[in-house]
Amino acid sequence: MAKYLISFPSAAMVVPDSEFEAVGRDAHAVIDEAKAAGVYVFAGGIDESVPPVLVSANGLVSEGGYPWAPVLDGGFTVLELPSREDAVAWAARIAKACRCEQELRVFSFDPRA
Description:
Layout: E1 2-8, H1 17-37, E2 40-45, E3 53-55, E4 61-63, E5 75-81, H2 84-98, E6 103-106
Antiparallel strand pairs: 1-5, 1-6, 2-5, 3-4
């Protein structure tokens, strides 16, 4: 089975304040279903109140992320699933719950990881 990353950037989630509680409830329900199905690995969101830092090979720390890369924020779910079709189905459930499209990626298998 492969591990799949299902994610969205913060800007993709445009939800009226009046629906935000329902989005949280619906999203947690999908995560609970993934846990019950035994496919859940982890989920969460980037804490945008904590700025990123770059750490070099010699341990030097500098403020900010890669200056040339898009901002990394939003929500992330990792599920372990038997097929891409299953991953698409779970991504659709998360998209419905979050009220925004989800990006789907597969992790390359590394036998030593």
